[in-house]
């Protein structure tokens, strides 16, 4: 899981280690845990060891940085898809220190640190009130409950870009207070994939999109996931697995690929480019 990531909102994925501990309903059907098990690595839970990667693996971001510098551009690096860099464990301290150094050494990469533990971010980085220009801090907020729990920690951190990932989206979420005060730069939303994927109300995505449009904040619709409304999928063939009772419109389990990522007829691929442009001019 590295160069040319299949995750729609990043260019590369970098994992300083594998493994984590579940902390909220968004973790229930964790794709990273499932992937680790399929590859023979039992690294989930508070008492299990983490899997650490080779020195060769750690050299890859330097190559990405050189490529970005050569083309006078930038690349986004999602860190980490197989872990949470702010998990509270003493054995991760030296690896975190190594990661912070790597980030500082690769100024042409925008490092996207996505966490379910934003309350620990400021305690575990060495940057105080002067975070590097190339660090974007994000928090997973899958429901209003966890938006209320995590957002105030996120906006207290002086990262140059702050974003949220509302995936898998589990309820309607009101982000308007943070959008209106210009404390949030980017919203990613998406449904759940995998064998145990749960469906989501289509209007929850529309509400987030409309909030972002109202305040000119970048919105990225990553995917419907396994389940999508019939109106979002082209073609006449409808799967046998339908859900018509709980939602504003009928949903069917089309599978991630066929469900696609079009919301009301278009793909939403917005990024906080304005900030990235400011960094580019400064380098």
Derived structural class: alpha/beta
So how many helices? 9
Shape by Cα distribution: globular
Instruction: Return the average pLDDT rounded to an integer.
Output: 93
Fraction in beta strands? 15-25%
Please indicate the count of domains.
Answer: 1
Secondary structure: number of strands: 14
**Poorly predicted runs of 5 or more residues:** 278-283
H-E string:
EEHEHEHEHEHEHEHEEEEHEEH
Can you lay out the helices and strands and say which pair or pack?
Layout: E1 12-13, E2 17-18, H1 31-38, E3 51-52, H2 55-70, E4 75-79, H3 93-105, E5 109-115, H4 121-124, E6 135-140, H5 144-155, E7 161-166, H6 176-180, E8 186-190, H7 202-214, E9 218-223, E10 227-229, E11 242-243, E12 251-253, H8 256-259, E13 262-263, E14 266-267, H9 273-282
Parallel strand pairs: 1-4, 4-5, 5-6, 6-7, 7-8, 8-9
Antiparallel strand pairs: 2-3, 10-12, 11-12, 13-14
What do you see in this structure?
The protein is α/β, with parallel strands linked by helices and 283 residues long. The protein has one domain. It is 30% helix and 19% strand. It has 9 helices and 14 strands. The strands form 4 sheets. A 7-stranded parallel beta sheet has the order 1-4-5-6-7-8-9. Strands 10-12-11 form a 3-stranded antiparallel beta sheet, with no helix packed on it. Strands 2-3 form a two-stranded antiparallel sheet. It is globular and about 50 Å long.
């Amino acid at each position: 899981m590295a160069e040319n990531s299949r995750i729609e909102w990043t260019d590369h994925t970098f994992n300083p280690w594998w493994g984590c501990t579940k902390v909220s309903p968004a973790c229930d059907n964790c794709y990273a845990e499932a992937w680790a098990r399929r590859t023979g690595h039992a690294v989930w839970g508070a008492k299990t060891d983490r899997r650490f990667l080779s020195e060769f693996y750690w050299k890859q971001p330097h190559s990405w940085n050189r490529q970005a510098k050569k083309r006078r551009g930038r690349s986004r690096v999602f860190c980490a898809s197989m872990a949470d860099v702010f998990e509270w464990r003493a054995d991760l301290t030296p690896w975190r220190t190594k990661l912070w150094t790597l980030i500082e050494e690769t100024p042409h990469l925008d490092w996207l640190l996505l966490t379910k533990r934003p309350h620990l971010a400021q305690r575990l980085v060495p940057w105080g009130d002067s975070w590097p220009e190339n660090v974007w801090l994000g928090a997973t907020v899958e429901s209003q409950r966890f938006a209320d729990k995590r957002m105030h920690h996120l906006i207290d951190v002086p990262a140059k870009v702050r974003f949220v990932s509302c995936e898998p989206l589990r309820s309607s979420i009101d982000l308007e207070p943070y959008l209106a005060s210009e404390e949030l730069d980017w919203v990613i939303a998406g449904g759940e994939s995998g064998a145990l994927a749960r469906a989501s109300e289509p209007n929850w995505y529309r509400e987030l999109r409309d909030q972002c449009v109202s305040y000119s904040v970048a919105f990225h619709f990553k995917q419907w996931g396994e389940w999508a409304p019939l109106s979002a999928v082209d073609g006449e063939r409808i799967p046998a697995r339908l859900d018509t009772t709980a939602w504003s419109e009928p949903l069917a389990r089309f599978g991630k690929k066929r469900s696609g990522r079009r919301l009301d007829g278009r793909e939403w691929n917005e990024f906080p480019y304005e900030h990235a442009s400011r960094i580019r001019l400064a380098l």
